[in-house]
Amino acid sequence: MSYVRTFLPWIVFAVVPSAQWQWGALAGLLVAVAVIAQQRRAGVGFDAMIMETGSAVFFAALAVVAFAAPRSAAHAYSAALSSATLALIAGASLLMGKPFTLGIAKRTTPPEVWGLKPFVRVNVVITTVWTLAFVVTAGALAALAHAGQGHSTTATLVQAAGFVAPMLFTVRYVATAQAKARG
């Protein structure tokens, strides 16, 4: 559930029809702000909401561009820009030594585990996989947009795969790491 909440602004943006990209960007922004507010009320610090904060910043900027210039070239590349932004946020979190998945994992893991090297290592691996998935997705979506297929069924499938593949990896990898830790 934590990953769904984390990526909810992106999901909302993806399901709004492309022709209304301004409203999709605004909806993504509103959902990102709502998720941040809900998490802050629950006591989650901003250090554990790297992806959520980055999402709010992205959707604020995209909404400004989309409403100011609805026919902007950014429209055709908005899906690629979204994945590239996710890759940038995830990659930056790795470079800062705070993999974005740590904030998500800490919500369901006892505090005594948070500082253990295997826990941190698992999150570095998971965040790396998410980062690579976002990079590949951004590249594929940019190529589709360049070919005039940026808002096609193929682009939608690429976007979905860009989330589903790392999500499946995460579930399996965590289960494997937990089993290894127990036995």
What is the general shape? globular
What is the assembly state of the chains in this entry? single chain
Range of helix content: over 70%
**From the helix content, strand content and strand pairing, which structural class follows?**
mainly alpha
Strand content: under 5%
Helix-strand pattern: HHHHHHHH
Number of strands: 0
Calculate the terminal CA-CA distance, rounded to whole Å: 27 Å
Q: What about the largest sheet?
A: none
Mean pLDDT across all amino acids: 93
Residue stretches low in confidence (pLDDT < 50, at least 5 long) are none
Q: How much is the radius of gyration in Å?
A: 17 Å
Please tell me the total number of domains: 1
How many distinct helices? 8
Secondary-structure map:
Elements lengths: L1 H14 L5 H21 L8 H19 L4 H4 L1 H18 L4 H6 L11 H30 L6 H30 L1
Explain the overall architecture.
The protein is an all-alpha fold. The protein has one domain (2-182). 78% of the residues lie in helices and 0% in strands. It contains eight helices and no strands. It has helices at 2-15, 21-41, 50-68, 73-76, 78-95, 100-105, 117-146, 153-182. Helix 1 packs antiparallel against helix 2 and helix 7 packs antiparallel against helix 8. The longest helix is centred in the C-terminal third of the chain and has 30 residues, at 117-146. It is globular. 37% of the residues are buried. Keywords: Membrane, Transmembrane, Transmembrane helix. It comes from Kitasatospora herbaricolor. This is Intracellular septation protein A. The chain crosses the membrane at residues 20-37, 49-69, 75-97, 118-145, 157-175.
